[in-house]
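So, could you explain the following?
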Amino acid sequence: MIDPYRMVFVNIIFTLVIFSSSLIYKYIYPRQKINLFYLLILLIIAASISIFRVGTYESGDFNIHIYRSMEFYGSLIEGNLMPSWSPSLNATYGYPLFIFNYSLPYYFISFFHFLGFSFINSLKLFLFSNMVLTGIFMYIFIQNKFKNNLASFVASIFYVFAPYHLIATHFKITIGEILAYTLIPLCFLFVDKFIRKYRLSFLILSGFILGLIAISHIFMTMILVPIIFLYLLNSLRNLTQVIKNSLYLLIISTTMSLYQWLPPFLYKNHLSISFNPVDFNKLYFPNIYDLLFSPWRFGLLFQGPQGEISNLIGYAQIIVIIIIIFLYFKNKIIAKQKKEILFWLITLTVSIFMILPQSVPVWKYFPMINAVGSHRLLLIVGFIISLLAGYLVINIKTKAIIYIIIAIAIFTTILNWGHRRVLPEIKDTNLKINLPLSTYQGEHHYYAITKYVDLNNPWFSKTPQKKIEIIIGSPKIKNIYSSSTVHQYQVSNSTKSLIRENTLYFPGWKAYADTKSLNTFPDKEGIINIDLPKGNFQLTLKYEDIFIYKLSKLISILSFASITLYLILKFRRNLVRFPKF
């Protein structure tokens, strides 16, 4: 049997076993209620089990994140707590990947690798754990909100089985989006707790989670901040208090993630994108048809034969929207919930509009984030619809409709519970060998292209034969030490010379003859050139973050540590009273 068909067959059998077992249990013990939380976990496992097929994925960013994880972990074990430079990428010329890329997912992957798992399996564990935690956090959030097991179960099913979430997890492997999506319900859990109890500790927890989302995917925080502000305003109605509380949230999350969002501004004069902005006319905006229907396998497959990706809202999700709008206008919504439901319907409408091509004139006012892609707002859409599904359970009398919608949400996505094809022959060792060339092959981070390189060919396709090339003079140079951020050589030089050290030029790289600072500059390819003096000395080329960026890292560390310490002391007996399952 062809592997993708085998995967679907296993998924269907596993799911049918879960549902049939539940029915048998209910038949044998009619007075016993099925534990919906445990049922949720089993269904998540069914949707995740294919992650652990042997090998890497044929398409998507799976291998890219393995390459980056190898670099991140290598820098960590050298003692760089917050890595900036990736030395082996870009054909060993390196580039400042981790200055411009999110970092939190790589800490988790590195932790799994530290425990002894391969990088491939560490990434798979990251994907699986996020699938499980996504459901758990949504369940806790809705249970805290409604105190209703069925509402919690339904909202969690919709959240986990949202098409874009499955696409991100199984096809695209966009680990920053995945982790941010996992944390969103946790953020709103503490926002809701703050609204009800008005305790500073819950506001700080909300800001803390928002900060974690920022270092998972900064775009998601930029979208969440105005939504949370309006949500607080809709709930508290006191503008002064809302502004003050929103500022607390913003300050906490911003200081925690300062090192993440500052670089585009800090290094602006050194980056290609500052002088060659993205052509806005070439950006892709999904149309309404893309949101309503997937063009493959009668709409049930969300990835095309050439790796194309659907931007589907979801069929069950559309049904929920229609029913909740119908109930709202028929005045069949519980009175105290009408205001919140209206808020989320308006937010959903705005979010969907911002995905569509009609929103282009609005996006032009946001030059820092418009190139990220409007389709990422489907994560917010998925969250809102899942929340509305919870409201639907509370407000609808005919529970059979709920069970039908659950079945549609699960079984219309079953073809997408795993990547269509894996490559079992690919191991860590294969990827490690290919790591230097991976940047040229597609690993590269667009925002990290410097202005000093050849913009027609910014990434190197061949590794240099030597780390040092002599341009002028005839110095004798011997390599004595090399790490990701320090290169040391013993030099004997009879006259002034000029050498090329095959490392990409970027602010922070400095050269020293013993302790004397040397002149460095980029050549036409953006590679470091060094003027060498006459004499015998130890040449050291060293990377250190520039002062302001180093300070931003320090502020982020202190912010994270102080908030963590405060929360531990505040909730040392019971961090959060999670509901019983």
